[in-house]
Amino acid sequence: MGGNSYIQAICGTENMVNGSKFLLLPFTVLLIIYVIAALKQGKKWPLYRCLFFSLCFLCVGISSIGPLAIRSQVDFKAHMINHLLLGMVAPLLLVLTAPMTLILRTLPVFFARKISMVLRSFPLRFLTHPIVAGVLNIGGLWLLYTTNFYAHMHEHSLIHFLVHFHIFMAGYIFTLSIIPIDPLPHRFSFLYRAIVLIFALAGHGILAKHIYAHPPIGVPVKQGQLGGMIMYYGGDIIDSLMIYLLCQKWFGSNRVTIGRRERRQKALLQ
Length: 270
Fold this sequence. Notes:
With 270 residues, the protein is mostly helical.
């Protein structure tokens, strides 16, 4: 793309980026609330969780404003980097911050119980089911990249915002359903979550290969191929972290179970 045409394209995408800025508003509010709540907890709350929340905010900011956000409107490679930051890295970091746990610890008992009732409600139980969360996450990406939805996203600022919001929220809910650090209304077995994760990773990888062979409408072949490679190999790195965290919790749970069993056996022998 020539210099003049590129400048025109950049000017034509400013409205899209301005729409994405609204994604930062709730995160700014949440960051302030998180920091205040963490300060109230003092040394009881790990400092690294605050660092994770700051990194999550940074990923959302990079994906919503600045050069990369503008470039992603005209360059599919930059768009895929945005996809990884907003749909995979930021959700994983947010899960690791355990925001709901911090809120429940900070709020008075009355309000904490009200939030717990909401967490146990049917809509949240349904949305946080690993299979449902996986379909919303991976299925949404298939819908975006295999139809003309991707082209429409760059023509309407509202659709552009909603797509970015869905990518982040779907990624967060799915990650939370697989690695539930925060309290959930139901927790499935590690084996069940591992199987769902394997299918989700396969769906993500197959989609990346499909994009490599058949780029979305309006995306040049070369950009589609590079974007597919970024999605495939970059996604593998983040997926490896999810697998590691799931296995770490799995083995930790087994150690706790074995320890309890040994204590019971010793108590019976005494």
